[in-house]
Amino acid sequence: MHNRHIPLMLMLSLLLTLVSLVGRDLLGRGLILGLGLVVWSALYFVERSHGSGETALTALIMLSIPLSFTDVFGYLKGGTLLCWFYLFIIFLTANYLLKGLAHNDLKLNALSVTAILVIVVAVIPLLNSPDFVDGLKQYGNIFLSLASIAVGNLLKPRLSQKDKFMLRLYFVLGSVVAAIGVLIQMTLYFLFGQVTGYMRILGSARYAFGFLFMDFSFLSLYLATGCMMAFTLTRVWPEQRLRLWGAMALLFIASVSTSARTGFAAFIVVFLGYNVLRLLRNMPRNPTRSLIILLATPLVSWAGYKLLLFFRPAGFTYDSGRSSLNSQALSIFGQNIWTGVGLGGGTYYERFGTIPHNLIFQSLAQGGLLFTVPMIGFLLALLLSCFRRDQDLFWVLGTVIVGSMFIPNIFDSRFLIAVFLVMGASL
Length: 427
Description:
- The chain has helices spanning 6-22, 24-27, 29-48, 53-63, 84-102, 110-121, 123-127, 132-155, 161-192, 216-236, 241-257, 262-282, 287-311, 322-335, 345-352, 359-389, 391-404, 415-426, and strands spanning 198-202, 206-211.
- By secondary structure, it is an all-alpha fold.
- The protein has one domain (6-426).
- It has a two-stranded antiparallel sheet.
- Strand 1 and strand 2 (206-211) form a beta hairpin.
- Helix 4 runs parallel beside helix 9, helix 9 packs across helix 11 (241-257) and helix 10 (216-236) runs parallel beside helix 12 (262-282).
C-alpha cells in the first residue's frame, strides 16, 4: 500500500499543533488563524489529490483531534464550537445531508437508527434539567458522538477498503501528533521550567501534562485508543509493522506521561484480553509464539507502572474518591429512578459535587433508567456488531468503554466522535 503523502500530512498537522502549543502568545491570534487556514487547506488538497473530498474531510477530522479543545486562534476553550475539529465535522455532515436530500438517499442501517433513538431518548433528561442551557451543552456532546455513527454510515457507500483503512491510519497519526506534543511539553518543563499548554502539579508531587486537552484522563485515553488502533493495523499492514510498533511505544509512553491512569489501565485490560484469546488459539499450533504472547502483557504492564510512578510517586492505587462518588450516584438514582436529576455537568456539581467517574453510574444519576438502558443497549449492540464484522474495532471500542468506567463525561472527550465515525463507516 503506497501512501507517500502520509509523512507530509503528519508534518503539516504537527507543525500547526506545536505552534499552538508553544507559539500562540508569540505569534498572536491573527497569525495562528492564518497559519491554520493555510495548513488545513494544504492538508485538504493533498489528501483530495489522492481521493475524494469526503475522505479529505474525514482526514482533517482525525488530524484535528489534538486541537479539539482549542479555538481556531489556539486558545484553550473547552466549550466552543469555533474550533477546527467541530468545523470539519459540520462541513462533512452538511455535505452528506445535502447530497442525500438531493438524491433522496439517506438510508441508515439498524445501528445508526439505534444511535438516533438514544439521541431522542436523551431529550428526556435534557428536559428534566434544572438548567436547560447547561443541560443543552451536555446533550450536544451526546448528540454529536452518537450522530457520528449515522454520518459514518452515510459515508460508507462512497468509501473503498483503502479509504476505510486510511480513516484508521489518520486516527493513529492524529494521536501520534498529540503524543509528540505531550513529550515536548514535558521536556520543556523538566529541562527549562517552561509551562506550555495545560499542565498542573497536583498533590503528592504529581506532574500532570494535558498538552492541549483540558482533561488529563481524556488525553490519556485518547492516546491509549490510538495505541490500540495502531496495534490492530499491524495485522493488516505487515510491511509497516515496525513503524506501527514504534508508534505504539510512543503513544503508550505519552499516555502514561500524562500521569492519568485511565489510558494505561484501559489499554492493559484490553491488551490482556486480546492476548489471552491469542494464547488459547496458538497454544496447540505454535508454543513459542504462545510464550511470547504470555510474556507480553506483564512486561508492558511493568514498564508502564514504573514510568507512571515517576509522574505520580504516591497515590497510584488511590481511587481518588471514585467509590464514594459512585455510591452517591446510586443514592441519587434511587431517588430518581426513571429520569434521574437531568443533564448538565455544572448543575450537577452545584447540587451534588463532582460528577461520578463512571459512565454507567453517571448515566443512572443524570438520566435514570429511561436513558441508561437504551444507552447500554446501544453500546452492547455496537460491541456485538464489531465482534461479528470487524474484530479490530472490537478491541478499539473495548479500550474506550473500559476507560469510560474510570472517568466522567466520556461523551465530552471529542475523540469519541472520531471513533464512532470510523465505526459507522466500517460496520
